[in-house]
Amino acid sequence: MNGKENGMNTVTLRVNRFTPRPERGRERGGSPFARKSSPFGDSGASARRRPRGKQWVQEYTLSVRPEDTVLDCLLTIKRTIDPTLAFRYSCGHGICGSDAVAINGTPTLLCTAMVRDWAKPAGTQVDNEGFRHTGDDFQPVPAQDGDDLGVIELAALPGFPVRRDLVADIDQMLDQIKKLKPYLQANDDLATTEDGKIDAFEYLQNPQQLAKYELLSNCIACGTCEGSCPVYAGGEAFIGPAALIAASRFINDSRDMQTAARMDAIDSADGIAACQSVRACSRECPRGIDVGEEIWQLIAQIKER
Ligand code: SF4
Ligand code: FES
Question: Could you write out the DSSP letters of every residue in 164-225?
């Protein structure tokens, strides 16, 4: 049955693959998952070393609907073509942030990226005058059933060591966020209910106070902003936009009593001073946060204090 008959199209996924060389000294038969790789476990420098191994590019051509997501494609490949392909996902709905990769070189989430938006039709990006279009100005002709939609290039999230295929090691980012104590530190005053009983969990805010940080609290720590940032690149010299967003979320929360300490923590050479205001971090945030603008506001808040 061809594509015209079953209402399907075809697409080719061109995947940058990587298999790490087995670690020396690991006991024969030992689990490859034995290393502590939890975001809350040991993630020191040795654990973050860029692993060496075999790199290659592999193409998979499969039947799709234009509205399928790139994650749908990878799951089909994993189940029916190549079970060795490694990628990470959890919720499948843009909520958990675990599946950020580079699609056609742009950091984004696999589960929200539709094939019709990312497939690059082979050859058709050259217009009648011979100019090659690479940006958003190119308007492809809507696909007909059975059409080959073209190619989607996939690679692990830039700026982080690759663990395997499309799986990047984001422990560095999670450690940087964790160091900034991303939880509410309210004072010890106990709130009381109307009848005078203690209600320790009630900290009132008005809508204006909530509005100051509500959008920032939507951050899912996906790392897309870090992968877009030319300064971050591994996070050795810059704490990174995701950590700054986490700090800003609590700095702007009227209930939090550690504003000065939080500002001190990021007012450093590898903190806000390292941000070069490139604003690439703003482009693809899946939660709609204008990351560059928020960091700019944060810098102003710290300079003015
Ligand atoms: S700010 Fe946006 S892009 Fe950056 S980690 Fe949070 S959700 Fe992801
Ligand atoms: S799988 Fe959870 S955000 Fe994509």
Answer: ETTEE--HHHHHHHHHT--S----SPPPB-TTS-B-TT-----HHHHHTTTTGGG-----HH
